[in-house]
Amino acid sequence: MEGDGKLEAQIEALLNVEKQMRQAGDVAGTRKAATDILQLCFEARAWKTLNEQIVLLSKRRGQLKQAVQAMVQQAMQYIDQTPDLDTKIELIKTLNSVSAGKIYVEIERARLIKKLARIKEEQGLIGEAADLMQEVAVETFGAMAKTEKIAFILEQVRLCLDHKDYVRAQILSRKINPRVFEADPSKEKKKPKEGENVVEEPAADIPSLLELKQIYYQLMIRYYSHSNDYLEICRCYKAIYEIPSVKEDPAQWIPVLRKICWYLVLSPHDPMQSSLHNSTLEDKNLSEIPHFRLLLKQLITMEVIQWTALWNTFKDEFENEKNMPGGTLGDKAAEDLKLRVIEHNILVVSKYYSRITLKRLADLLCLEIQEAEKHLSEMVVSKALVAKIDRPMGIVCFQPAKDSNDILNSWASNLEKLLDLVEKSCHQIHKETMVHKAALKA
């Protein structure tokens, strides 16, 4: 009790000093008095009194923002030294309420929210942690370091993915422009001009920009895996593959390159997929995994692929993927691989045939007639190719239908060619006649 009374007397004395300094407009003195009060409470381990004094000091009439900032920063150092979890949460909540709505302590508030969200996550309350993190929009913080902003947004995305909130995860991920990872950090360190915000140094636990790039793309892979968007997953792995630390270590780039190859062949055929396919085939590192070079070659060569032979060749590699970094390819992957092979075969047939019977098409695809017709129809609907099926005759026509303008244009073109040939023939006949006449006169 004597100790409590002594502490109260010391706090009272310092409160009077703080009042005098504040009224005199002495920034350094007010800050010193406020932080000394917090230090006294901390040394006495009077956590309840500490919380009360933080609230009291922050609400005093005409309180200087420098004093509030100093108090919040000092009290944040005490968080990890609290005796138990309840005391820690109470202190964080007190600091959070004091810093709410104050721009000059927005960075400290973001760090406090992050700490509280981590505690909630450890308690298994992922939904609450995700909601807490979404309260803060760090992209508007001018004084926060770029790496810390990115790390905070990535934490928001991760918690949304853990909570299975894929819509919010996508919205939050769009706050990060992937081009930011390509910037050269050495060129960005410049002295701020007069009137500009001074950017604070990031917290000690914030990863580097290249580490954040890897985290970003790993989170995006999780997001795209939910919707089985294979081409976007492939592009994410491609971005990870280009990171210097990954490219220099075969133990890291070989599993990534394997994933790039698998997701390339699982992606539906389109110009971007075709471009990635060709650029990957030109990669010299592919010689380290020749099986995958063969896989890519097969799916780019315009020849019909036998699904059974392909699956028997690559089944072990497919199954082995679960032991690689990045995990399995997903439950649907084997079915989708078969579908891509069928689509490839239909494209090959459309290239070599203008008309073909449905029975012959089904034989080439090793499918039933109804199944072949279904896959062909799906490709036509997705505009991957142009085809028409004459069901009564059982004939597929791969030539696009021409409208009246196209037919007239082709006739006009043919007439032009014909008249050109007639003109050339007349010229040759006239030339031969003149030569023959000249020979007779001689």
Folded structure, characterized:
- This protein is mainly α.
- A three-stranded antiparallel β-sheet has the order 1-3-2.
- It comes from Datura stramonium (Jimsonweed).
- This is 26S proteasome non-ATPase regulatory subunit 12 A.
- Keywords: Proteasome.
- Belongs to the proteasome subunit p55 family.
Biggest sheet architecture: 3 strands, antiparallel
| Head-to-tail CA distance between termini | 144 Å
Give me the count of strands: 3
Structural class, judged by helices and strands? Answer: mainly alpha
Percent range of helical residues: 55-70%
**Mean pLDDT over all positions:** 83
Q: How do the strands of the widest beta sheet line up side by side?
A: 1-3-2
Summed up, what is this model?
The protein is mainly alpha-helical. 68% of the residues lie in helices and 2% in strands.
Give the tags.
3 strands, 2% strand, mainly alpha
Fold blueprint:
Layout: H1 2-24, H2 27-43, H3 47-59, H4 65-78, H5 85-99, H6 106-122, H7 126-133, H8 146-162, H9 166-173, H10 185-188, H11 209-226, H12 230-241, H13 244-247, H14 250-266, H15 271-281, H16 290-298, H17 307-320, H18 333-352, E1 355-357, H19 358-365, H20 369-381, E2 388-390, E3 395-397, H21 404-441
Antiparallel strand pairs: 1-3, 2-3
Helix pairs in contact: 1-2, 2-3, 2-4, 3-5, 4-5, 5-6, 6-7, 7-8, 8-9, 8-11, 9-11, 11-12, 12-14, 14-15, 14-16, 19-20
Domain PCI: 232-403
Pfam families: PCI (PF01399), PSMD12-CSN4_N (PF22241), RPN5_C (PF18098)
Keywords: Proteasome
